[in-house]
Fold this protein.
Amino acid sequence: MRVLTLAEIRSRIDDGRVIEKMREALIAHSRGECDTPMPMHLYPNAGEAHMKSGYRRGGKYFALKLATTFHGKGNGMMLLASAETGEPLYYLADEGHLTDVRTAAVSAMVAQALGRRDQTIGILGTGIQARLTARFHAQILPLKRIYLWGRNPEHAQACAEEMRTYVPDVAVVSSPSAVAAAARLIVTCTASREPLLRASDIEEGTHISAVGADSPGKQELDPEILRSADLVLADSLVQCEKLGELQHAADVFGRAVEIGTFLLNHRECVNSVADFTGLGAEDLFIAEWIAEAK
């Protein structure tokens, strides 16, 4: 079995190609080409562990992924095994980095697919996901300014400093509503268990990518935001109903559209929400690409 270290993995990442791979993964998922079981969650010693898996029928590999958070620090790994023999072939010791990367890439990909050309983006959260969100959106948008909010002002300032690598003008604001007032493109990437944004905060023409709610009980958005949106997207309808923002807005489920389906059949909208829970298919596509990259 080949072991890839975090340093090797980082050296193989190409942001533009990752965005392309996430598009391929979501389309394959929505076409029914992938076996993507429901994620598993454990909460050992106040930590959080997510296990996901995926296989694209006819593919060379299947993937198993572990992503953890303990005391605010992420870790994890990905494993690629032969789809012919079950033999483990690649152990990607990524410390959770590929999960963070593919999550930021897929939200950027959706903004791109929606035809967004925003020069301003709002981000809720100050962890690694917020930093990568800035990096990947800067790849596909003519960004000039980021409005950033986080619960801890010191963390927010540190996050803003790193974000200035990608977008020089980063303003730390005092509340989620201030982010919504300033930006029409918003990404929420927190571990919140109660709404951070209210429907009354949202201006016309806003798209929200809700990344943080990926397990039971998590929530970043007032359900009225989903109810009033012209378009509600879900990476997986099955997962989002149980794990995402849609778990708090069951009445919206019937008109939600999988992102992969939307990518093949674009339509115009005014206000939109994308609900992300993270797919085993995404883990498979990024892991096999990294493993075979030269």
Notes: The first helix runs from residue 6 to 12. The domain at 115-278 is CATH 3.40.50.720 (Rossmann fold). The chain has a mean pLDDT of 97.
